[in-house]
């Protein structure tokens, strides 16, 4: 009969974190969370409230190809971290026929650890992922000491090498969504199995004829303890440390200091051959979650699994951004002689040749005076995505003023201008970016303090104002772009952007840098 005792946690600290972080966290949260250093916490699941739109403005997929990549990264992480694990001392006793021997196994350290075979696959029945490994090879080295009581006590010590082979581990992780739109994770006792097929112990030093009587007892004690406790450790880690980490993951990403993107999940992920997630995909003013009233386009079914990660972004996301920017008054610009290039300053003068020729009354009323043009958006910008391209429409007022000698402004007139712009969409780093490549304008007079005029006379001045001030500011915002959810160390590579009716699709592979 063998009696052994092992610490309640076979591996000290949070030893299973590398396994779960490498294999699982990335899979669960890549499409639903982001770097915790820049994301803020949100309140209860907003879309559940009456009147909130549950339709996803953003979807993501991790294909089996992506899961295989994450599995490989996880194995690399695990094989590095497992070498640093601290295994508690083992104390036990055994009856060897000539007496009761008490033994101690101390200073145990892992010298070899390799995982030749592993799989990470979606499990639709469980609503999560299943991790399976087999053929794990593990070698450890440590010290031993024994003592046999009796009329003449006997004790001895030395060191040992142990080799475990044919180790298998299978664990299922059930992944859902909590009340704040973050992923959650759990495992039950039946979700985990662990088995050591064989464990050979080779003791060195001391009287071999004696310790050979019970070395198999030590091996059995180590194997039984590991088999009995590893799954308890895994489940405790999943339901404790890993779930706590997911609770801290944030789903709100700031874009500059004006607006933020809501990436919260609107339903539990699905696990049919790939991991598929649906997200709110809406932009709000920072601190103000006023819902955008525009409809959310439907993303059609798509079975593409050729890349590791896919992201579908509906036009609702940029349209909610325009709605938010309009509400906070961000889309207002004052074009002055101080903020235009030197070669363009001539256009901001009442004696400008074209302006004097077409609206001569301005120069007569305010001769040779500098001008200021206030540009104010009067409607939220609207983005239309089609297979043929992306178009953005902005409607606003152009209100020029003459700058009097005392620096006060003299109102001239108000033009309502509609700008139709062609937008190119790109992928820079881990951000979706955009650039206004060309534009056209239409305009009509709303009010005038200088008498009637033909609006066509101002086409050049208006286009200049748009070109030198409005478009650069919008492109500056577009160059920064909108950050897509990611975890530290993972980056998108070789992205391909394609367009559909009401949405754009990004297919990309991943790289990992520790």
TrEMBL record:
Protein name according to UniProt: Bactericidal permeability-increasing protein
Cystine crosslinks: 192-231
Family membership: Belongs to the BPI/LBP/Plunc superfamily. BPI/LBP family.
Species, as recorded: Strongylocentrotus purpuratus
Keywords: Disulfide bond, Glycoprotein, Secreted
UniProt domain Lipid-binding serum glycoprotein C-terminal: residue ranges: 303-508
GO cellular component annotations of the record: extracellular space
Record has Ligase as a keyword: no
Superkingdom assignment: Eukaryota
MF (Gene Ontology): lipid binding
Listed Gene3D superfamilies: Bactericidal permeability-increasing protein, domain 1 (3.15.10.10), Bactericidal permeability-increasing protein, domain 2 (3.15.20.10)
Subcellular location: Secreted
Ranges of residues in domain Lipid-binding serum glycoprotein N-terminal: 61-288
Pfam assignment, any one: LBP_BPI_CETP
């Amino acid at each position: 009969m063998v009696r052994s005792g092992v610490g309640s946690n076979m591996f000290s600290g949070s030893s299973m974190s590398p396994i779960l972080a490498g294999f699982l966290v990335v899979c669960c949260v890549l499409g639903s969370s982001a770097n915790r250093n820049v994301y803020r916490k949100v309140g209860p699941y907003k879309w559940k409230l009456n009147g909130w739109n549950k339709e996803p403005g953003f979807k993501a997929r991790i294909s089996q190809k992506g899961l295989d990549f994450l599995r490989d990264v996880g194995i690399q992480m695990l094989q590095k971290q497992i070498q640093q694990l601290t295994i508690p001392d083992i104390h036990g006793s055994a009856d060897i026929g000539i007496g009761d021997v008490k033994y101690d196994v101390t200073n145990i350290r892992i010298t070899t650890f390799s995982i030749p075979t592993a799989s990470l696959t979606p499990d639709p029945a469980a609503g999560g992922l299943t991790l399976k490994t087999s053929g794990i090879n593990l070698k450890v080295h440590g010290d031993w000491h024994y003592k046999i009581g009796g009329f003449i006590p006997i004790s001895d010590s030395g060191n040992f090498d142990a080799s475990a082979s044919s180790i298998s581990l299978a664990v299922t992780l059930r992944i859902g969504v909590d009340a704040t739109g973050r992923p959650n994770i759990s495992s039950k006792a039946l979700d985990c199995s662990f088995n050591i097929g064989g464990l050979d112990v080779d003791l060195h030093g001391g009287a071999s004829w004696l310790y050979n009587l019970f070395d198999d007892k030590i091996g059995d004690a180590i194997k039984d303890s590991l088999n009995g406790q590893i799954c308890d450790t895994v489940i405790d880690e999943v339901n404790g440390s890993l779930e706590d980490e997911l609770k801290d993951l944030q789903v709100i990403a700031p874009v500059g200091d004006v607006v933020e993107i809501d990436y919260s999940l609107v339903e539990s992920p699905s696990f049919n051959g790939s991991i598929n997630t649906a997200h709110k995909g809406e932009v709000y003013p920072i601190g103000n979650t006023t819902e955008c009233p525009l409809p959310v386009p439907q993303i059609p079914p798509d079975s593409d699994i050729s890349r590791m990660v896919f992201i579908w972004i509906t036009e609702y996301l940029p349209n909610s951004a325009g709605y938010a920017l309009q509400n906070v008054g961000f889309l207002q610009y004052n074009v002055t002689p101080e903020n235009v290039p030197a070669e363009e300053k001539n256009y901001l003068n009442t004696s400008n040749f074209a302006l004097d020729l077409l609206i001569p009354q301005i120069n007569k009323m305010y001769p040779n005076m500098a001008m200021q043009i206030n540009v104010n958006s009067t409607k939220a910008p609207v983005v239309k995505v089609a297979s043929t391209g992306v178009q953005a429409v902005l409607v606003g007022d152009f209100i020029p003023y003459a700058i009097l000698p005392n620096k006060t402004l003299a109102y001239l007139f108000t033009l309502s201008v509609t700008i139709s712009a062609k937008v190119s969409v790109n992928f820079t780093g881990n951000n979706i970016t955009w650039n206004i490549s060309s534009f056209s304008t239409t305009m009509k007079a709303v009010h005038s303090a200088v008498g009637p005029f033909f609006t066509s006379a101002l086409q050049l001045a208006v286009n200049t104002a748009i070109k030198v001030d409005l478009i650069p500011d919008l492109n500056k915002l577009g160059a920064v772009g909108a950050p897509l959810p990611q975890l530290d160390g993972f980056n998108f590579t070789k992205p391909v952007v394609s367009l559909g009716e009401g949405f754009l699709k990004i297919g990309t592979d991943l790289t990992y840098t520790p």
